[in-house]
Amino acid sequence: MLDLFLPWVAAPGPLTIGQLGQSLDGRIATESGASHYINGLEARTHLHRLRALVDAVVVGVGTVNADDPQLTVRHVSGPNPVRVVLDPRGRADPAAKLFTDGVARTLHLVGQTLAAPYAAQAKVAERVACRRVGLAVDERGFDPADVIALLHASDCRRVLIEGGGVTVSRFLEAGQLDRLHLLVAPMLIGSGRPGLDLPVIDKLDDALRPECRLFMCGGDSLYDLRFR
Asked: What superfamily does domain 15-196+210-226 belong to in CATH?
């Protein structure tokens, strides 16, 4: 674990790390959205360890509505990170655990035009340690650089982009990931939801070629990819 974590835990300055668990053929869920569990217990424990080592964990609204995650540290010892929900169109289920359980702080990012309607819920939000903030939105949603800048300004300097695949792909495409932990299970799903989905390239010279280290994580392979 020291070999895996020490290079970035001990490094000074901010860091943004992505994480995806997938099958050998690059699927993170079936067509119906079933994903529990592609990766084994050791891989899930690794994810919780990542959460314990960062200041904030980021997910998209699709993950919140599909999985109702807690995004807390349960398999390892450590503090819970700030939970960040990217919800540019205001589609999140208000009954989701992230907004109601009160076990960790939650930052709900919505489009600037939607921030005012949420103000009426401020007192409720305070009781469950949930804060809603408006951020500029374009046709694709939030600019990943704006999200990272906002988190850094909120003293969240180590950030985990946890999912889903669309969210991790957008941060990678925008050049906002320093590292990516890709956990690959020895499983072929054949069809379903892809993990990474990046712009089309014409030549292999244009492919991303990050530094790569390989570790075993139970029955899964953990690729530690460094982009900058």
From this structure: Dihydrofolate Reductase, subunit A (3.40.430.10)
